[in-house]
């Protein structure tokens, strides 16, 4: 099926599960090379990254820990500034090699925030592994070590990514068909 509808929007097939699988395999092989002799902690950012993480981590061959965190955003009562809280982190990160596993980096604000939080926890090193990157949207100076695919500035769904809660279960990635 080339076209799907989720709620009020139509989406068209953009990246097939076969292409996804190839890109994930490449990423895993790079990470396996770089992490040889280390025992990294993979920090999976929920919810979107759960599908990618399941695929990636089954291809990781080095000894590793895996944990899941969520960034909860809420607006402070005193200001309109967005405050993000890191939920679910129980591991001691001090002196660890941490690989952050993310589904997509758009403006980079979420990841930048995460990196600052991790540096405060005195990690030995942080690497970023994102399945998708929108280079034209990136506003932060981030060193992104592992990227599955670079994509244009379109809104996409599937492979863990949702539109208003729907579409995370789709094995392929679709992009929104803009309103005319
Ligand atoms: P950033 O902070 O880099 O701008 O945004 C990162 C977050 O925005 C991602 O983790 C994801 O939740 C959401 N996001 C960015 N682009 C897309 C997209 O094309 N589709 C979906 N479903 N979510 C996106
Ligand atoms: Mg995400």
How many domains? The number is 1
What ligands are attached or bound here? Answer: guanosine-5'-monophosphate, magnesium ion
Strand content: 35-45%
- Structural class of the secondary structure composition? alpha/beta
Radius of gyration: 17 Å
Strand order of the largest sheet: 5-4-3-6-7-8
Tell me about this structure.
The protein is of the alpha/beta class and 180 residues long. It has one domain: Rossmann fold (3-Layer(aba) Sandwich). The chain contains three helices and ten strands. Strands 5-4-3-6-7-8 form a six-stranded mixed sheet. Strand 1 and strand 2 form a beta hairpin. The model has no long low-confidence stretch (mean pLDDT 94). The structure holds guanosine-5'-monophosphate and magnesium ion. Guanosine-5'-monophosphate binds next to strand 6, helix 3 and strand 9.
């Amino acid at each position: 099926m080339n076209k799907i509808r989720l709620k009020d929007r139509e989406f068209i097939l953009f990246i097939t599960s076969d292409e996804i699988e190839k890109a994930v395999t490449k990423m895993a092989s790079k990470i396996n090379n770089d992490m040889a002799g280390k025992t990294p902690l993979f920090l999976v950012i929920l919810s979107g990254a759960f599908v990618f993480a399941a695929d990636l981590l089954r291809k990781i061959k080095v000894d590793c820990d895996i944990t899941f965190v969520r960034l909860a955003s809420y607006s402070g009562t005193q200001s309109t500034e967005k405050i993000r809280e890191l939920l679910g982190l129980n591991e001691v990160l001090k002196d660890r090699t941490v690989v952050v596993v993310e589904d997509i980096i758009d403006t980079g604000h979420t990841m930048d925030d995460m990196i600052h939080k991790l540096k405060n926890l005195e990690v030995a090193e942080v690497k970023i592994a994102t399945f998708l990157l929108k280079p034209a949207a990136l506003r932060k100076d981030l060193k992104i070590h592992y990227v599955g695919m670079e994509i244009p500035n379109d809104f996409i769904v599937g492979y863990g990514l949702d539109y208003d809660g729907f579409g995370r279960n789709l094995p392929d990635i679709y992009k929104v068909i803009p309103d005319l």
